[in-house]
């Protein structure tokens, strides 16, 4: 398993492999870039099929955090961590505390928060050993509602740009994943009058969306074939790929999942097909923006900053049209300029 020659390696500053035999902890911390400040990004727990799959994920996710934090105007660099294991069966206080001790050894170069497979309870266990945690219950708390708000406003920006509409009445949206963020997003969309087409591996979440939000349940693979205006990926990454691009009928792809495009070239492919893509790390920055307000937490100020996602995305869409370039390339260019000047 190569690191420096890995396809997902992007000049990362530091990659740390952590193993604690007593608790069974196997984790990787990737610090991508600290030009704008200490690396901040969540801790994902996932039953990876191989160590290489975990490494690929953490390398890609940490790079995404550098760009996300820069574009959101936060004084943070980019980092991420993954714990290898089944979140349903392997979690324990001891395991997360062991992880916290590893974070201490990094001296604050990386600050963690919750992500897929981890919760505020797990963060509290990590915090028993280290101060390098964010998204703490009772302070900024669960980031998901803020990620959902930013994603909802991002969908509105895309609809404004593509369809020239300010309202979402009757708009058809296919939502893939009704988890912490996806369900809140569906609630926003439902209140705005959108029609929902939803899928998930979790039957209970589907039934709830059907009963509470009038959502239409579709199969896991059928989500790509829906005749909808917006496809909102809100589960895992790489769902926009060679197999799905030809099937997705939506003119807009805008959701909260990280790393939505399987490969960078899919950005151009979407543009060629007239699909407006809201760059993932821009539209899903609401949670980290909220976390950045953790000290002296001010919900109104955090919400106002999350609302800036709407204008940032409109700016990206307009620049992409003016320069005839894919939206992801434009966002990357803008982020790199911010990173090069250290966030100032
Ligand atoms: P979550 O684990 O709460 O929800 C994910 C949902 O997707 C679950 O309901 C799960 O059952 C479902 N799912 C899993 N596999 C699926 C499949 N093949 N098809 C359909 N549904 C499937 O996670 P979350 O916190 O809601 O995050 C969702 C996505 O948004 C992730 O990619 C995450 O990295 C990203 N994200 C989350 C936040 C946040 O604040 N939580 C912030 C930024 C980005």
Automatic annotation (TrEMBL):
Residues 141-343 form the Glutamate/phenylalanine/leucine/valine/L-tryptophan dehydrogenase C-terminal domain. Keywords: NAD, Nucleotide-binding, Oxidoreductase. Pfam families: ELFV_dehydrog (PF00208), ELFV_dehydrog_N (PF02812). Gene3D superfamilies: Leucine Dehydrogenase, chain A, domain 1 (3.40.50.10860), NAD(P)-binding Rossmann-like Domain (3.40.50.720). The active site is at residue 80. GO terms for molecular function: nucleotide binding; oxidoreductase activity, acting on the CH-NH2 group of donors, NAD or NADP as acceptor. The keyword Cytoplasm does not apply. InterPro entries: Aminoacid_DH-like_N_sf, Glu/Leu/Phe/Val/Trp_DH, Glu/Leu/Phe/Val/Trp_DH_C, Glu/Leu/Phe/Val/Trp_DH_dimer, Glu/Phe/Leu/Val/Trp_DH_bac/arc, NAD(P)-bd_dom_sf. It comes from the Bacteria. SMART domains: ELFV_dehydrog (SM00839). SUPFAM superfamilies: Aminoacid dehydrogenase-like, N-terminal domain, NAD(P)-binding Rossmann-fold domains. NAD(+) binds at residues 177-182. One of its GO terms (biological process) is amino acid metabolic process. PANTHER family: LEUCINE DEHYDROGENASE, VALINE DEHYDROGENASE. Catalyzes the reversible oxidative deamination of glutamate to alpha-ketoglutarate and ammonia. Belongs to the Glu/Leu/Phe/Val dehydrogenases family. This is Glu/Leu/Phe/Val dehydrogenase. It comes from Gallaecimonas xiamenensis 3-C-1.
């Amino acid at each position: 398993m190569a690191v420096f020659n890995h396809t997902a390696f992007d000049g990362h500053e530091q990659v740390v492999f952590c193993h604690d035999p007593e608790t069974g902890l196997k984790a990787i911390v990737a610090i991508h870039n600290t030009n704008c400040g200490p690396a901040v990004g969540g801790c994902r727990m996932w039953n990876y099929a191989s160590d290489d799959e975990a490494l690929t994920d953490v390398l890609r996710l940490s790079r995404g955090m550098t760009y996300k934090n820069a574009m959101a105007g936060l004084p943070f660099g980019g980092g991420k961590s993954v714990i290898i294991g089944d979140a349903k069966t392997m979690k324990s206080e001891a395991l997360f505390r062991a992880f916290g001790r590893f974070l201490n050894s990094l001296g604050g170069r990386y600050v963690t928060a919750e992500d897929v497979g981890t919760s505020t309870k797990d963060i509290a266990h990590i915090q028993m050993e280290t101060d390098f945690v964010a998204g703490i219950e009772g302070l900024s708390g669960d980031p998901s509602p803020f990620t959902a708000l930013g994603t909802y406003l991002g969908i509105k920006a895309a609809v404004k740009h593509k369809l020239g509409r300010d309202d979402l009445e009757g708009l058809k949206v296919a939502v893939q994943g009704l988890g912490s963020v996806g369900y809140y997003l569906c609630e926003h969309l439902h209140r705005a009058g959108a029609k929902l087409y939803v899928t998930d591996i979790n039957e209970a979440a589907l039934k709830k969306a059907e009963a509470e939000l009038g959502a239409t349940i579709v199969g896991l693979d059928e989500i790509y074939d829906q005749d909808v205006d917006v496809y909102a990926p809100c589960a895992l990454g790489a769902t926009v790929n060679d197999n799905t691009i030809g099937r997705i009928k939506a003119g807009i792809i805008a959701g909260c999942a990280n790393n939505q495009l399987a490969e960078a070239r899919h950005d151009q492919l979407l543009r060629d097909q007239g699909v407006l893509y809201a760059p993932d790390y821009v539209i899903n920055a609401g949670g980290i923006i909220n976390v950045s307000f953790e000290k002296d937490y001010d919900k109104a100020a955090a919400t106002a900053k999350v609302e800036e996602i709407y204008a940032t995305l409109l700016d990206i869409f307009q620049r992409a049209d003016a320069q005839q370039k894919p939206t992801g390339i434009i966002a990357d260019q803008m982020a790199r300029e911010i990173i090069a000047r250290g966030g100032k």
